[in-house]
Amino acid sequence: MKAHNLYFMDCHLAGRKYHDADLVWNDLKVGQSVRLERELQNPYDANAVQVIFNKEGEDFLLGYLPHNDNQKVSSFLEMGWDDIFDCRISKLNSDMHPEQQVQLTIRIKRKEQ
Prior knowledge:
Blueprint: E1 5-12, H1 21-24, E2 33-38, E3 49-55, E4 58-64, H2 71-78, E5 85-92, E6 102-109
Antiparallel strand pairs: 1-6, 2-3, 2-5, 3-4, 5-6
């Protein structure tokens, strides 16, 4: 049987305390799907990839993929492959340092034929 999604990478959410995560913290769950979106005009990171949580039609910027982990994902998104990734929250721990509180697992979706 073929896998539905192929494991790509795990990483922590960067910049969590500087964005909207506190506004939706109680809504975040392990297994929750989040969207990856390229941010071309980011002055701090040429390969910036936003992590977006959608709640009832409203988008909340949770943070970013870490600088050290975003180059390949950024390249795919920039080439127009917006729907190739399935990104989900794999760990939540409010007792950890803010940069370690949210772990993400990114998988590549199988192309439907």
